[in-house]
Amino acid sequence: MGTTSPQAVLVLVAALAGLSAPGAADGQPNFIVILADDVGWGDLGANWAETKETPHLDELAAEGTRFVDFHSAASTCSPSRASLLTGRLGARNGVTHNFAVTSVGGLPLNETTLAEVLREAGYSTGAIGKWHLGHHGCHHPSFRGFDYYFGIPYSHDMGCTDTPGYNLPPCPPCPRHGAAARIARKDCYTEVALPLFENVTIVQQPVNLSSLAARYAEEAARFIRRASDSGRPFFLYLALAHMHVPLGVPSPPPASGRGIYGAALSEMDALVGRIKQVADSHGKGNTLLWFTGDNGPWAQKCELAGRLGPFVGAWQRQRGGSSAKRTTWEGGHRVPALAYWPGRIPAKRTSRALLSTLDIFPTLVALAGAALPPNRRFDGLDVSPVLFGWSDVGHKVLLHPNSGAAGKDGEIETLRLAQYKAFYTTGGAMACDGSIGPAEHHQPPLIFNLDRDIQEQEPLDLASREYQAVLPAISRAYAQALEDIATDNVSVADYSKDPAATPCCNAQHVACRCQAPGSHTAALDRCTERSATWLCL
């Protein structure tokens, strides 16, 4: 008589607890991945009691599982998003820093996206929101596995609008006349208006930021309903504009002690609540909703930046600069994460497993019954046992790539091993006061014990028994990780630039304006004519 496998025992335990693993009889589950932009770990009330603006997200946490040791794969936009959609770090997939408005390239075409795998497995696939993985030619999301796309090709502050959101420094609206009306402003895009795409067509330029959240909610709801009516499983990747810089504040703004940022946070929370409501109405019990962030708060935006919670990177702050976005301190990459799947994912549960956005790719692929792309290695894990409450064990080692504050972009000079975090390079991004922490190289590395020092304030004494005991394990893990990457099938992204790659629906108009008030249909016709130039030939 054969012995019962540990996995079978876990399935039995879960079933007895009223939870079940998805099986062939259930059909393929639906997936909704909601990615917030520059959201702080402390921006959720479920994580940080001082935050009062997220009742819907807090409800999501209460009805699902909250992950408190969850990390973005990088601490800046493009690399983080590339890793989520490939399950591979930038050192493998080639995306090591952000793409520009004039970028010719994007996520390398030989990298396989999650959408491509799921579409091949029979899924209806949609992307709504910020892309930032290349918009020119074949890098556009319509050619990266998504049946439907509605959104902005990069961050919503990378182009002028008629309704500028809040920013520091404030940016002027788009010019309406000739060059004389143009206002040069540092850190502002004043020459080309921000475009809004539906599939390969620019449907609005400049975007109306004031109504963008409502449009995203509307398009997401429409996609879910349409996919549900078709009878096919669906994958929706909803990459929010929030909380990068506030889009605008509803009038009158909701009561909030955090002013503009708090009002924007409330707007994001309501949007997530709306998506949950629609998902529950069209497939409750067969839809996994996963909410997380692309990186930590953008500290240089001062009162327009999110809350770090306890992850303040005190060692770096004492030396200048921010310890949030673009850094490898906890505040740069530890992000809020919630998973909701009634009847499958335990409610009212908090997991302390060490997880990452890298895990979304292999986990969803496994749950869909699909296979990982061949001839490459993955940094993410199938963490479905953690999702279903059968285990609370995630990564043994997690790598944190340089993301702009110090060191060469994309290189691995920080890693986590259990509760220990080792820095071979440190540095601070620009802080609210304008300071930037200098890059420092550490050999042997700085090592923090996060179980005792979550604020990353005091590294272990090099002469201590604890340091000497853990250093050999860290050194081995680091060497093995670098060797694994060096011997993998890695890609190289094209970061070249050409002004001709700038999305522009009418180059004859100042700032590429293509939708004057009252001429929506004509503007769409003009944009449709241009769509041929986006065909992937």
Automatic annotation (TrEMBL):
Gene3D superfamilies: 3.30.1120.10, Alkaline Phosphatase, subunit A (3.40.720.10)
Superkingdom of this protein's organism: Eukaryota
Essential cofactor(s): Ca(2+)
Reactions performed catalytically: Hydrolysis of the 3-sulfate groups of the N-sulfo-D-glucosamine 3-O-sulfate units of heparin; an aryl sulfate + H2O = a phenol + sulfate + H(+)
InterPro entries: Alkaline_phosphatase_core_sf, Sulfatase, Sulfatase_CS, Sulfatase_N
Matches recorded under Pfam families: Sulfatase, Sulfatase_C
GO CC terms: lysosome
GO molecular function: arylsulfatase activity; metal ion binding; N-sulfoglucosamine-3-sulfatase activity
UniProt keyword list: Calcium, Disulfide bond, Glycoprotein, Hydrolase, Lysosome, Metal-binding, Signal
Domain Sulfatase N-terminal residues, every copy: 29-370
Leading EC class: hydrolase
Compartments where found: Lysosome
Protein name listed in UniProt: Arylsulfatase G
Gene: Arsg
